[in-house]
Specification:
This protein is α/β, with parallel strands linked by helices. It contains 17 helices and 13 strands. The chain has 2 domains: 200 residues, Glycogen Phosphorylase B (Rossmann fold, 3-Layer(aba) Sandwich); 154 residues, Glycogen Phosphorylase B (Rossmann fold, 3-Layer(aba) Sandwich). It is 44% helix and 18% strand. α9 links the parallel β6 and β7. The C terminus is likely disordered.
Length: 374
């Protein structure tokens, strides 16, 4: 059974971190043993992995800022620690999950002589010029890239054509039993839920501004992050305290999903939004932007609504349209559950990663791996 060392350098608890829990806690499906090499300043992230029963090798409290990322990626100390962990754990391969882990994992793979897989959860770090240092070198020394959606795969290939042949799509999966359908709401105001870390890329400020023009709907914001203070001030400025509520980080989002009529996602270029998949599995449609990987998850006017007018007025009109017909929203939610069941099952995801792991360790199996993933 392959032994996989997952490299996680992160400060927030988001979709990529929950994805890792979903994958690493099912060794019987992936056919691999999993260990997490963790570098984080956030005790909640550490608790997430430990609470899920994962084996964690903890670097201890680290800093998260541009200088710390540069020092960690290029300096001698963290690579020495990670290489030692890889040797002690007898790792067969490294699996990197976050931008902060990309260069570090590639360097460590070269040092200890094992292959490196990296899951691309999104495209944000490709759009940020400050993340460009050694980007192509890290990609060149990454053995395989798993993209969570066709959108992400195509984007990475367009930015780094030389890496196109090593990219394949492995869709994220949802635990369909855990995120079981719940009956739609029948009373009270039509309520949206925005689930995820409060980060600038989520653009929740446009959601709040649109809420000011949509008097008949409510919004629950689930998550924490650097944007929370600014967003709370924006809610007060618009006088929306009675209709927009901050629920904070919830280790289990199911109660928040069950308490809404629909999910709301205002990100322009999502890779493959895990919260949207979880909402769909529970029978909740999503109102999201018609770009990035969202159209691979939401079928417009069937499992949710896609917004093409990316203005405050456009989002306000979409909020009002969705909130005007609770019966239609419930029917979209029913269709959303059927859609994710057909494409985003967690068992399938884990098995596909198992095939990738096997092909990396035994390159002669690569052709078989690709045929089975096609």
């Amino acid at each position: 059974m392959p032994r996989v060392l997952h490299v996680v350098v992160a400060g927030a608890v988001g979709g990529a971190e929950q994805f890792l829990v979903n994958l690493a806690s099912r060794p019987q499906l992936s056919g691999a043993e999993h260990v997490v090499a963790l570098m984080t300043p956030n005790p909640k992230l550490r608790a997430l992995f430990v609470g899920a029963g994962l084996a964690v090798r903890d670097r201890g409290m680290v800093r998260e800022n541009p200088l710390a990322t540069l020092t960690r990626s290029l300096g001698p100390f963290d690579i020495a620690w990670l290489a030692q962990v890889a040797r002690e754990e007898k790792a067969d391969l490294l699996h990197a999950h976050t931008y902060g882990s990309h260069l570090l994992a590639a360097r460590t793979g070269l040092r200890v002589g094992i292959p490196v897989l990296r899951t691309e959860h999104g495209t944000r770090h490709y759009r940020d010029p400050s993340c460009g240092l050694y980007r192509h070198w890290a990609l060149r020394h990454t053995t395989r890239v798993a993209a969570v959606s066709s959108y992400v795969a195509d984007f990475v290939a367009s930015v780094a054509p030389a890496a196109a042949e090593k990219i394949e799509v492995v869709l994220n999966g949802i635990d369909m039993a855990r995120f079981a359908p719940v009956p739609p709401l029948e009373t009270g105001p039509f309520t949206f839920a925005a689930v995820g870390r409060l980060d600038p890329v989520k653009r929740l400020q446009i959601a709040i501004a649109a809420m000011a023009q949509s008097p008949d709907v409510h919004l629950n914001i689930v998550g924490d992050g650097a944007e929370r203070g600014m967003l709370e001030a924006l809610v007060r400025r618009h006088g929306l305290e009675a209709r927009v509520h901050f629920l904070g980080h919830l280790p289990d989002p199911r109660a928040a999903i069950a308490g809404c009529d629909a999910l709301l996602n205002t990100t322009r270029a999502e890779g493959l939004p895990l919260a949207v998949l979880e909402g769909a599995a529970m029978g909740r449609p999503t109102l999201g932007f018609a770009g990035g990987g969202m159209p691979e998850v939401v079928q417009d006017q069937s499992t949710g609504w896609l917004v093409r007018d990316d203005t405050t007025e456009g989002w306000a009109a979409a909020l009002q349209q969705a909130g005007a017909n609770r019966v239609l929203a419930a029917s979209y939610g029913h269709a959303a559950r059927a859609w994710v069941e057909s494409r985003f099952d967690i068992d399938t995801m884990c098995k596909r990663y198992g095939l990738v792991y096997s092909a990396l360790i035994d390159p002669q199996r690569s052709c078989a791996c690709r045929l089975q993933q096609a």
